[in-house]
Amino acid sequence: MTDFELLQEPLLSRGALDRPVTLRSDEDALDAGWGDALVLRVSPRGRVRLQGDRLLLERAAQLFPQRPQEAVLLGVDAGLHVWAVRDTGFDERVVPGESDGTVELGDLRSCGALLGSTEAGQYVTALAVLSWHTNARFCSRDGAATKPVQAGWVRICESCEREEYPRTDPAIICLVHDGADRILLARQPVWPERMYSVLAGFVEAGESLEACVAREIAEEVGVLVHDVHYLGSQPWPFPRSIMLGFHAKADPAQEFVFADGEIAEAQWFTRAEVREALEAGDWSTRADAKLLLPGSVSIARGMVESWAAVGR
C-alpha cells in the first residue's frame, strides 16, 4: 500500500479558539472586560506557568491595573477575555503555588501534548503573535516605530500609518517512502546520534508546496521524489511557522548527497524497525534503541505513526 492518511489530528492543530475578530477593535468592550479577564504570561524563552497539565491563567487586573499596550487578545473562553503578555521579569524557576499545589514552568515541547484543545490553541497563538511583536517594532517601509492596535493583532507605523500584520511562515515536512516497506529518515548535525526525523524546509517565494517538497529533499539528501500527496498541517510557533505535511515516494537505490550541510546522515529504515522505535518512546527516552523518533507534540511523530500503521 503506497497511500495513507494521518491516524489523528496533530496535537497542536486541535486549537479550538473563539477568535472574536470584531471585538479586537472595540476598545470600550475590551476595557470593560479587563476586570474579569484572564492572562497568560509568557517568558522571553516561551515558557509558561503550569498547574498540573493546565496552563495557569491569572486574573489580569490583579497583575496589570491597566491593560498593557502590547497585550494580545487570544480569544474568549466561558465569556471571559483571555490575553497573553510577554513577561520580561518572568521568574524561570519552580515557584510556590497557591493552596492547590506547586506551580511549575514548562514549554510547548514538554507540555503541548498534555494540554486540552483550547489551551493548546491559546499557547501556540500566544507564542506566535508575541514573537511577531518582538520583531516588528519598526516599519518595513520607512523604519519608523510601530505601535500595536486592535488588541495586539495589528501594528501601525507612527509615521506613514502603514499597517503590519502577524506573519506565518509556511514550511513543508515530508515523509519519504519507497511505496512499500521502507522510509527515509535523516539527522541534523546538531542532533545527538540515533535521533532521526522526516525532512522539512521553508517554502520560497513564488514556489508551490509540491515544488518545495521536491526541491528541499533534493537539496538536503540528493533524492528525487514523485507522487507527492498532502497529509495535514500543524502550527509550529518557533517562532511563527506552520508545518504542511506531505508524503512522497522515492527510489532507495539513489545515492545520498548532502549538499547544503543541513543533514549529517540519512538512512532507509524498514517498517518493522520504525514500529520498534515507536514502542521504545521518543527523543526524550533513555532507551538504548537503534532509532529514536520525535515526540508526540510534533506532526512528524503523527506522520511516522500513520505510515507505520499501514498493514496492521
TrEMBL record:
SUPFAM superfamilies xref list: Nudix (SSF55811)
GO molecular function per UniProt: metal ion binding; NADH pyrophosphatase activity
GO BP terms: NAD+ catabolic process; NADP+ catabolic process
InterPro entries: NAD-cap_RNA_hydrolase_NudC, NudC-like_C, NUDIX_hydrolase-like_dom_sf, NUDIX_hydrolase_CS, NUDIX_hydrolase_dom, Znr_NADH_PPase
Classification via Gene3D superfamilies: 3.90.79.20, Nucleoside Triphosphate Pyrophosphohydrolase (3.90.79.10)
A Pfam short name: Zn_ribbon_NUD
Its EC number(s): 3.6.1.22
Catalytic activity reported: a 5'-end NAD(+)-phospho-ribonucleoside in mRNA + H2O = a 5'-end phospho-adenosine-phospho-ribonucleoside in mRNA + beta-nicotinamide D-ribonucleotide + 2 H(+)
Family as reported in the entry's similarity comment: Belongs to the Nudix hydrolase family. NudC subfamily.
Cofactor names: Zn(2+); Mg(2+)
Name used for this protein in its record: NAD(+) diphosphatase
Keywords, sorted A to Z: Hydrolase, Magnesium, Manganese, Metal-binding, NAD
PANTHER family reported for this sequence: NAD-CAPPED RNA HYDROLASE NUDT12 (PTHR42904:SF6), NUDIX HYDROLASE, NUDC SUBFAMILY (PTHR42904)
Originating species: Speluncibacter jeojiensis
Residues in Nudix hydrolase domain copies: 166-291
CDD domains associated with the record: NUDIX_NADH_pyrophosphatase_Nudt13 (cd03429)
GO cellular component, one term: cytosol
Superkingdom of origin: Bacteria
